[in-house]
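Example 3.2
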Amino acid sequence: MSFKSQLYIFLFSALSAIAIARPNPLAATPRSLSSKRGLAYNSTHPPLDIFTPYPKITWGHCWTSVDLGLPTSIEFVPTLTDLTVDAVPSWDAHVQAALSQGSSNPKYLMSFNEPDQPGSKAQMDVGSAVAGYQKYMNKYASPSVKLGSPSVTNGVVNGMGLAYLSNFLKACNPCTIDFVPVHWYGCDNNCPVAQDVQMFKDQMTQAMSAAGDKPVWIPEFGRLGSLEDQQAFLDQVLPWLDDAAQAQIERYAYFMVYDGYLTTGGALNQLGQTYVQ
């Protein structure tokens, strides 16, 4: 079972959060253009307008190419999740629709979601990922549209994680790759928060090195454990991510906008409040 699968199971059974009253979003708060912080959400998300009062929340993604109701004041980043019939036929139309929305410049597109993860819907070897990227992503490269390489896990076996990423970056030629997304999930054996914090920083430092001079995105990251442990984790890693020393880390999104994670009863819980402030 993957770290992410264990994260789903643990949090649904263990998280207990006190919901905090929802702010009244009478109007969208102007976004902070310098903020890296974003939203990872899916089709079962609570009302996303709860995030509009918080200027640090500047972008969002939902592992697909349609925005699923993200407020227009928050930039949506489409993803070509995989190369299946569920994703490919509608990709071009959805990209055109996304590129026509709002005034953000440049726009961003992400490619395959964890192709290095055995058993994932997007699982593919590096050669297949390169061919798919060249066919479906490269054509959108321009000064105003920035393209992301496949989002890889923090797995360390059988060519997963940063090994997969490095092999892709070497093999994808000719390819336009403007930024490099990576995922991270903490240990699954109730390790100390301090250990997870250090592992996260070490992994992101290695990711920045693997990316060369390209910006790094973290569209998914999460800590296993209690709400208190997750808050302690965020209290330490958010300042680190936002520090000028990590300028190469361009964007990130904590996992995820969902009841029992960042929200409870459709409102921000204590962890969610920590994340948006």
